[in-house]
Design brief:
3-stranded antiparallel sheet; 228 residues; globular; 4-stranded antiparallel sheet
């Protein structure tokens, strides 16, 4: 594992740490951009009802900050995006989807998440099964200590420098926020169905890693991975 600092900048001028894990290079922070790489503004939605009225589809783009706290949560946890916003109209059947990521970076698909999981020690059978899987692999990705994660932050070692944080999420049904300090959930490009996507999750109370499915209009974090 080798950490690099201040190596990628988005359209807004945010500078992200990056980390090499195996043959992949990941952002070591959650994405926090409000424009696409071409300068197009991403719709910013604060109202709970407006968020709940987003369709669970490929077109209703939106982002927000946890509890709409732009001053308190933005720089630490990054933004929460719908899948449509993350994808920016790209088809899930293609590879290296830039979406909301800076040029030269893309949203990871489920195979890339699985490659990460197996490199840090999860079995091939576990990465293919939904639910909380593995043993200590989630802990290897979590930031250590209790500055951001709630007690007990089980198994957190951050030995690969991924520095995952408990961003929480925004519910698609009522627009309410939950999970800050307890859970992080990250988008993939891979669809589970017309209304749902595959995600990866971490929790304060387990060292396992979650292979989950969520609705497309949940607000969730984004980690970009570098194009090869």
């Amino acid at each position: 594992m080798q950490l690099y600092y201040n190596k990628v900048t988005d359209y807004d001028g945010n500078i992200y740490k990056i980390v090499e894990i195996g043959e992949q290079i990941w952002m070591a922070e959650n994405l926090n951009v409000t424009h696409y790489a071409d300068g197009t503004i991403i719709p910013y939605i604060t109202d709970n009802t407006a968020w709940a009225n987003l369709g669970d589809n490929d077109t209703d783009k939106a982002y927000c900050y946890y509890n709409n706290n732009i001053n308190g949560e933005k720089d630490t946890y990054g933004a929460l995006y719908t899948w449509a916003a993350a994808m920016n109209g790209a088809s899930s059947s293609t590879n290296n989807i830039q979406g909301v990521c800076p040029t030269g970076w893309h949203i990871p698909n489920i195979e890339e998440w699985r490659e990460l999981q197996m490199f840090i020690g999860m079995s091939e059978s576990d990465v293919m099964i939904y639910g909380w899987r593995g043993t200590d692999q989630g802990g290897k990705l979590k930031e250590t200590g209790l500055t951001h994660w709630n007690d007990p932050n089980t198994g957190a070692t951050n030995e690969f420098g991924f520095s995952a944080l408990p961003t929480g999420f925004r519910n698609m049904h009522d627009g309410l926020f939950s999970g800050l300090g307890e859970k992080g959930s990250w988008i993939s490009t891979t669809e589970f169905s017309n209304e749902a996507i595959t995600t990866r999750s971490l929790d304060y109370n387990t060292a396992q890693m979650g292979n989950h499915v969520t609705g497309k209009s949940y607000g969730q974090a984004v980690r970009c991975i570098k194009d090869k």
